[in-house]
Amino acid sequence: MVAISESNLKTSLGALILGGMVCTGLTGIVAMQTVLYFRLFSRDQLSTKMKVATVFLLDLLHSVMIAAANYMYFVDNFGTGDITDHVFWAVGISIALTAVLTVIVHLFFALRLFKLSKGNYWITVPIAVLAVARVVAAFVTTVELIRLGSFYEFGQQFRWVFTLGLVLSSVVDFLITGALCYYLRRNRTGSGRFDHILDSVTLYTVENGLLTSVTTLVSLIFWLVKPHVLIYLGLHFAISKLYANSFLASMNARKILRAQSQSQSGSGHRLPVIFTGRGVRHSNADQLNLGTRVQITVDKTVDYATDDIPESLSTDQKGHSTSRV
């Protein structure tokens, strides 16, 4: 163990408790988006539903680990001066869960990129390899942190492993975001309304990619600059939540973007594959939102001249015939 100054102790504990609070709020958003998904896309394929359920359960388990870690720091070891140098098992497991959630989301978007690029292995395979390498680095970090039981000792021996994991995560984020934006721009057709949808998808992709990558980079900077202060760990707590929300938001955004795409079906363009769903059946009434019966009544009035009216009819009678469709 290493001596911890009072200011560093307060900063580290503050970062842990704030990180835990942010994680709790983000977990609530993940839960809301999961419920929304199952309400909107009840006819999605079972495999897609399993992905969503897996992300939700892993995110929930990650929140449990964060709560357990904070309990150990703030309750079980209350008053211990060097407690922020100690690594509890819950912290190590939370890092591994973050890596698992990250690779699930990375591979999900890599598959979307593979379809959007029409099978470009030169782009998607390196991204997948880097994503898997990031998980391996995180698992090594988890094992060594729990074994050593000290952030200081881990930093002296395996600092490069945790650094490598964060760097790979940021690199994969930038590669996926850049490649998706490139292929979305290539799909522009010059049609104003369809290009507007592509612009919306591109902006959405950039916002989600930057949110996760910037958070990871900030955590990396604090790890490199102030490894003895746990600000980087508090930020790291939120990374998995951002990836989970990014994944679920992309699933739920299909509803709005599909409606925009169908509103201009006459142009012959369809929504980019990044936001399309498989195995979803729609009737024509669902797509066009036609459910009201229209009744048209046509009245035909024939006026007779005075000389043409038979004697059996009164002079002011008119013949009416009505047809309904």
Describe this structure in words.
The chain has 325 residues and is mainly alpha-helical. It has helices at 6-40, 46-76, 89-116, 121-148, 151-186, 192-225, 231-262, 284-288; strands at 297-302, 319-324. It has a two-stranded antiparallel sheet.
Topology (SSEs and partners):
Layout: H1 6-40, H2 46-76, H3 89-116, H4 121-148, H5 151-186, H6 192-225, H7 231-262, H8 284-288, E1 297-302, E2 319-324
Antiparallel strand pairs: 1-2
Summarize the structure.
This protein has 325 residues and is mainly alpha-helical. Helix content is 70%, strand content 4%.
Oligomerization category of the chains in this entry: single chain
**Strand line-up across the major sheet:** 1-2
What's the shape?
Answer: elongated
For the termini, the CA-CA separation is 87 Å
Number of discrete helical segments: 8
Question: Can you write the helix and strand succession as a string?
Answer: HHHHHHHHEE
> What does the radius of gyration come to?
30 Å
Measured as a percent range, the helix fraction is over 70%
Low-pLDDT ranges: 265-276, 278-300, 304-325
Quantity of strands, as a count: 2
List keywords for this structure.
325 residues, mainly alpha, two-stranded antiparallel sheet, 8 helices, 70% helix, 4% strand, disordered C terminus
